[in-house]
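Q: Start with the shorter request: fold the first protein.
A: Done. Sequence, then structure:
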Amino acid sequence: MTLKLAIVSGIIYGYAWTEMFYVPMNVLWFSGLIHGLIFGLVTGDVSTAMILGGNITLLTISQVASGGVEPSDICLSSCITIPLALITGMDVKTALPLCIAVGLIGNMNTPIFYTINNYMAHLADKYIEKGDIKGIKRVTWLTAAVDFIIAFPFAFIGVYYGSSVVTALVEKMPEWITNGLNVAGGILPAIGIMVTLKVIDRPKMIPVFLLGYFVVVLFGVSVIGAAILGICAVGIMWNVSAFEVEQG
């Protein structure tokens, strides 16, 4: 199973870096929930995988790319964290701090790919000057292939060899560190949503966030259940706003 998850992880991460077909690439790059679904289907434990992916999505949803560069590698963080959590039996709260660490380390890959793509762009310029459409297409596919080949090992090695390392660390980790990670992991998704509200400058939404937070805490609603409640709340608010506009 470890080998299978490592291969799937490498394929997802490699494809995301090819930047081929913009919409599906972006979905795979930014959505831990989609990663969770894919890994869940591979392992047969869709529920656990999607809970992990949903929490990672909540954690990273507030990230904003400045100058085209993400503050952390969202795709690599979920491509490694979700499989490792499924393999080692790590709970969600312990997995989230690992997700942050992997994302920050993975962001060091960005200069490598940008350097390669910059060279390929100049190579394409030569074909553009000649009006060689076939040459431009060859460079485009070559760039995607090179990016995939370079990106694949990062995720593959992280999952295939990381599982034994993570298992050993978790087993030897003192209880106070484990408890600390659990507390931090429980807070992180809330911070992600609060930062998002700050970024979109919608302080009126804070009461809705607090309501959702305490519903989850007090009644033990799952992440997927909270998402459904959130969609319903947005629908109600939208209808109320539309009604007020009609009446006005």
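Q: Next, the second protein, separately.
A: Sequence, then structure:
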Amino acid sequence: MNEPATQLPEQVSGRETNFTHERTYSDLKSSHKGFKQAAERVLSVNNWHEYSGGGLARFTLTNNLGDELFGFAAEGFYISIDLPGPGPDAGDGLEWVMIEKIRMEGSAETAEEYLTMTVRPVPDPRKTSLEVAHFFNDMSTSTFIVRRDGRVVGAGAHGRNESPNNEDVDLHDKIRNTTIALLARVGLSGAQWQKLVTGLIEYKGK
């Protein structure tokens, strides 16, 4: 089986971030069940806000026209992200990423199993503009991983090549994107991702 880490894009430039959480179960049957639940939560993008305990950002799964979708994420689908405060002009107030890769390996019968999902900033699919609608540029990626290793189930959000999207955008977006990227650099976005990866494992529902 390939290691989940091999699914991460190579870190070349900009910032690298890693947020993780894990839980040890009493037996293999319960750990497999915990993994399956966490994997389904990764793919249930519209519920990420709930799993995060009411985090600041709201995530919506859409098709390639920007229309909301219900159900599980798949390669080629988009995610809109609504952050507090003014959004980018390029996305009419929303950040946009596309799901470019999903991989799943293993089963209840194997010692390990994992799910990875990688997303990348893209232009707003509702518009013809080629401007990337995100505060990071399109070299940046976020990869979400859920993994079971024996009785241990872990989740992670891993950013690679995170750099401000301040080229080929209008002045407002250049200032806004640089500012938000700098805030992310000092760790303010880390709270959102840490809440999410913890929720992927620990969420109890209502």
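Q: Describe the second briefly.
A: The beta strands are 15-24, 58-62, 78-82, 95-105, 112-121, 141-149, 152-162. The CA atoms of residues 121 and 138 lie 5 Å apart.
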